Amino acid sequence: MLTKRRLVQALAAGGAVTVAGPALSGCATNPATGEKQFLLVGEGQLSQMAATSWAEAKRTTPTSTDPRYLNRLKNIGSRISRGAGKSNEQWDYAVFDKDAKNAFVLPGNRVGFYKGMMDFADNDDQIAAVMGHEVGHVTGRHAAERVSQQMAGQLVVQGGSVLAGSQLGKKCRSQAEARIAGRRQIARQEQIQIQREYQNCLSGAHRKTQLLSAALGMGFTFGIVLPYSRKHESQSDLLGAKYMHKAGYDAYQSVRLWEKMAENSPSRQPEFMSTHPDPARRAEDLHNYIKYQESLGSQGWKSIKMPESS
C-alpha cells in the first residue's frame, strides 16, 4: 500500500524544472548609424573568434595568385576605410579564386572578395560600393548585434518552452492528485496505474514542449533575426554609399551595381524569407538616399537618413 502523502511526494520529485540564464544588458548608441544597439558581446571577443575562421577560409579556399587583384582591392579598401574614418585601423584583405559574385567581412576588419565579384564589377567605383558595404557592417557593429540577438533569442525560446513544460507538468500532477483526493490508502494495482498515467502525461507534455520550442524558434527567426539581418544589409548599403562619396568615388555606381545584380538574379526566394533585400529594391533605396543627401547641400552625407517618404 502507498499513502497519499508518499504518492504526492513521488509525483513532485519528477515534476520540478528550473531554468537560469545570464542577465541581459548592453544598450549603446552606434556613432555610425545613430541608433541604439543591444550588445552582449564586444568586438574584441568576436575578432578573436573570427581569427580562426579567417585562417580556415584562406587555408581551404585558394586565393588568387594574380597580384593585380589584391593590389586593386587594397587600394580601394584603403580609400574606403579613410572615408569611414577607419584608416588608423589594421585591415586584412584577401581575394579568393572563385567565380562567385560575393564578398564578406569578418570581425577584426577582415575583408574577403571572390574573384567573380571583382570581374563582375564594371569599374573601381562598383568594387568600392561592395567594399563600402562590407566596411558598413564593421562600423555598424552588425556582427556583435546579430550574435547578441541570437543569444537573447535562445534564452527567450528556452524560457518559453520551460515555462510551458512547467505548466503542463503541473497539469499532469493535478490530474494524478485528483485521483487520490480524500483517500487514505490506495491499492497496489491502482497505484501502478496512476503512476503509469502520470508518466504518460509527462511524456505527452514533453512532446508538446518540444513542438512549442520549435515553433518559438521559427517565430523568432522570421519575426526578429531575419528582419534585423535585412536591416543590417540596408544600413550597410547606405553607409557604403556615404563612404564612397567621402572617398571620392561615384556613389551612383552602387545603384548601377545592384541593378546589374537584379538583372542577373531573375529567381529569388521571397524577401520575407531572405536575409538580403531584393537587389532591385536595394538599387531604388540607394538612388533615393543619394538624391536626398545631394539635396541637402553642405549638410548632406552626415548620416544615413533617408527622405521621409522612403
Summarize the structure.
The chain is mostly helical and 310 residues long. 63% of the residues lie in helices and 8% in strands. The strands form 3 sheets. Strands 4-6-5 form a 3-stranded mixed sheet.
Please describe the topology of this protein.
Blueprint: E1 2-3, H1 4-13, E2 27-29, E3 36-38, H2 43-60, H3 67-83, E4 92-96, E5 103-106, E6 110-114, H4 115-120, H5 124-139, H6 142-180, E7 185-186, H7 188-247, H8 252-263, H9 279-295
Helix pairs in contact: 1-6, 3-5, 3-7, 5-7, 5-8, 6-7, 7-9, 8-9
Question: Would you give an account of this structure?
Answer:
With 310 residues, the protein is mostly helical. Strand 2 (27-29) and strand 3 (36-38) form a beta hairpin. Strands 4-6-5 form a three-stranded mixed sheet. The chain is built from nine helices and seven strands; from the N terminus they run βαββααβββαααβααα. The longest helix is centred in the C-terminal third of the chain and has 60 residues, at 188-247. Helix 5 (124-139) packs across helix 7 and helix 6 packs antiparallel against helix 7 (188-247). It folds into two domains: 28-144 and 227-299, no CATH class; 146-216.
Main structural class? mainly alpha
The secondary-structure element order is: EHEEHHEEEHHHEHHH
Strand order of the largest sheet: 4-6-5
Indicate the proportion of strand residues: 5-15%
User: Biggest sheet: strands, sense, closure?
Assistant: 3 strands, mixed
Number of discrete domains:
2
Quaternary structure classification = single chain
